[in-house]
Specification:
Blueprint lengths: L14 E5 L3 E6 L2 E7 L2 E11 L10 E10 L2 E11 L4 E11 L2 E10 L3 E3 L2 E8 L7 E6 L2 E6 L10 E4 L1 E6 L3 E8 L3 E5 L7 E6 L8 E3 L4 E12 L12 E3 L7 E2 L2 E6 L15 E7 L16 E7 L5 H14 L4 E8 L18 H11 L4 E9 H6 L8 E6 L8 H6 L4 H9 L7 E6 L33 H14 L4 E8 L15 H11 L4 E4 L6 E8 L2 E8 L5 E5 L4 E7 L5 H4 L9 E4 L1 E4 L4 E6 L2
Parallel strand pairs: 20-33, 22-23, 22-29, 23-24, 24-25, 25-26, 26-27, 27-28, 28-29
Antiparallel strand pairs: 1-2, 2-3, 3-4, 4-10, 5-6, 6-7, 7-8, 8-19, 9-18, 10-17, 11-12, 11-14, 13-16, 14-15, 15-19, 16-17, 21-30, 30-31, 31-32, 32-37, 33-36, 34-35, 34-37
């Protein structure tokens, strides 16, 4: 019998707090996170990454590390080896945190020929204080006036620059100089990351590329902060006040779950899912006859060969549905080649306009919902925007494309509102289906395959993530759910029944996310009211059968005190580290309430279901 771990196995992440007279930050092994200047976050992250040809990150060997202070400076030195059986790079990285200045320097040597997609520093700029604001880009000594994008840019907002200048939150002028190579910016919100990312090199250049043995490596970044507003107050931490946004009221979306085999439907008869999400690869010529008839609504995702005639493709789908007596509810036709990612400015495959598939499907299935969009991330939908010949628009969510750390994953809910706003700009207000929504990836558009995670680590591009069966998996799912609620969000699919992204183990034991899905289906047809936004506590108010509920979660690893506004008495249930083992003992449900006051405490990554007592 499997045993689930509350925090998704032990993490290798080691966070240490540092500060000088101006800056506070976290040191995350060889990276810096949450860099704050006078308690204002000015950098989400500083990292140095070496990618292979599948965009997987090398895990460096730390040959030596030092840290020391000189007056008001904090200095870090890392000697790092990036290597596998075929290639090796040795670098010495220096980080210097001074008064209103940050310096990041890397010098090294390629000890073999080295194939890579990208090597170098990455800066993650927070959205708050700069989104939509003016910025000056310098390219080859030429200054260009621009703005940080408000809607999510499908391609890179700024290419091949060596200097960037902007004002941060009206408090500081920020000047960033780059040496050694041109840098570029992409809109990380495409992948659910709440940041703009500045990275070394350019995606306009061919990749992967080879660097010859014996070549030296050099990059340097200098960041200067010039104070413009002297009246900067430190922000005090207070008790969180949880209140509703009364101007926004929505209906609970229909909830689906992913299946790999139709027989899996028999395993969840006690959960009233509205539909079942099923992918059929029509490039695979195997005849998969479904032996049992299931009179349940099916959302069929058809992966098709774009080289075949559109009419013959749709006819093949019709034959499959008819022969297997599938109760079709929704149909997404997606050329299988579009499981891969294509740069907006790069070379694209010769694929028929997607509207041709949608129009033909409407003829053959006139009373069914024809879905447009992509099977994979919002990034790919944003780059392949369908035309107006569909009923529903589709994309999926995974948070571990770029940053698989706990901080990185739990930061992604902040981005969802930007995704929805951008989607509204080109979807003609069509209903939205989002799913699957899981920490682990289902497809890797950016490489040949998903990353092998046999060691159960926090790993980018991995199919299996150990936090799936943990408090973090539930907390992240609740936070994403709370942010996805909107006027056009009509359908959501979070997990699978079985497998890496499942809610049941092979012996039908209930896994942690079973209880999250149990909440979702319980609130079918409920009225949903968003709460005022907080980066630490996410949640919703839900109204069903003349009762009011709150679904709340703490997405941090710290204890948080909170008050429910305009509520006196409540009944609550919770899941945290103290009672997590009840899941292993098959003795848990969120629908076992006890009475308490409106003053509530959240343990790390705790989720609560609360019923208000009238």
């Amino acid at each position: 019998m499997p045993k689930f771990n509350a925090f998704g196995s032990l993490s290798k992440e080691i966070f240490a707090n540092y500060n000088n007279s101006e800056f506070t930050f976290l040191k995350d092994n060889i990276f810096l996170r949450n860099v704050e200047l006078k308690n204002m976050e000015i950098l989400k992250m500083v990292s140095f990454l070496v990618r292979d040809k599948n965009w997987n990150n090398y895990d460096p060997k730390v040959l030596n590390s030092e840290e020391y202070k000189t007056k008001n400076d904090i200095n870090f030195i890392f000697d790092l080896q990036y290597s596998d059986k075929l290639q090796k790079l040795i670098v010495k990285n220096k980080y210097i945190i001074s008064e209103r200045k940050l310096t990041f320097l890397s010098e090294g040597l390629f000890e073999s020929d080295f194939w890579t997609n990208r090597i170098g520093f990455n800066l993650l700029l927070p959205l708050k204080g700069i989104i939509g604001k003016e910025v000056v880009i310098t390219k080859d000594s030429k200054k260009i006036n621009a703005k940080f994008p408000l809607l999510i840019s499908p391609d890179q907002p700024f290419f091949k620059f060596n200097k960037i200048e902007y004002n941060f939150n009206k408090h500081y002028d920020v000047i960033i100089n780059f040496k050694g190579i041109d840098f570029e910016m992409e809109d990380q919100r495409n992948w659910g990351d709440a940041s703009y990312k500045i990275y070394s090199g350019s995606l306009l250049d061919p990749f992967p590329y080879k660097i010859n043995k014996g070549k030296k490596f050099y990059q340097e970044i200098n960041i200067h902060f010039d104070k413009k507003n002297t009246n900067i107050k430190n922000l005090d931490k207070k008790i969180f006040k949880i209140s509703e946004n009364p101007s926004l009221k929505f209906k609970m979306p229909k909830i689906g779950i992913k299946i790999k085999k139709f027989e899996e439907i028999n395993l969840v008869k006690n959960l009233n899912f509205n539909f079942f999400y099923f992918i059929k690869d029509f490039e695979d010529n195997k005849v998969n006859k479904i032996e049992q008839t299931f009179n349940m609504p099916i959302y069929l995702v058809a992966l098709i060969d774009h080289n075949k005639d559109v009419k013959s493709v749709v006819a093949q789908i019709y034959e499959y549905i008819n022969n297997n007596k599938i109760c079709l509810n929704k149909l997404l036709i997606c050329p299988k080649i579009y499981l891969n990612s294509f740069q907006p400015a790069g070379e694209w495959p010769n694929v028929p306009n997607l509207s041709k598939y949608y129009m033909e499907a409407k003829k053959i299935f006139p009373d069914k919902l024809i879905v447009g969009g992509m099977v994979t991330n919002f990034t790919e939908l944003n780059r392949k925007r369908p035309e107006d010949e569909f009923d529903v628009i589709n994309f999926s969510i995974t948070p571990i494309v770029h940053d698989a750390s706990d901080i990185g994953v739990m930061d992604t809910p902040e981005d969802i509102l930007y995704i929805l706003k951008t989607l509204e700009s080109f979807s003609n207000n069509k209903p939205i289906h989002v799913g699957p929504i899981t920490i682990g990836m289902h497809h890797n558009p950016y490489g040949e395959k998903l990353a092998n995670n046999s060691d159960n680590q926090r790993l980018e591009m991995a199919e299996f993530d150990p936090r799936h069966d943990s408090l973090l998996g539930i907390s992240w799912s609740v936070a994403i759910f709370s942010q996805l609620i909107g006027k056009n969000t009509k359908y959501l699919t979070f997990d699978s029944i079985l497998g890496h992204h499942g809610i049941l183990a092979e012996n039908n034991m209930k896994r942690p996310l079973y209880f999250f899905n149990e909440i979702l289906v319980f609130f079918e047809n409920a009225k949903v009211v968003p709460l005022n936004f907080s980066k630490e506590i996410y949640g919703l108010a839900l109204f069903k059968n003349n009762k009011k509920y709150y679904l709340l979660t703490n997405v941090t690893n710290t204890i948080i005190d909170a008050n429910l506004i305009e509520v006196n008495k409540i009944k609550q249930s919770y899941l945290n580290n103290k009672n997590f083992n009840d899941i292993n003992e098959n003795n848990f449900t969120f629908f076992n309430f006890f009475e308490t006051s409106n003053k509530i405490k959240f343990e790390a990554y705790e989720t609560k279901l609360i019923e208000v007592i009238k």
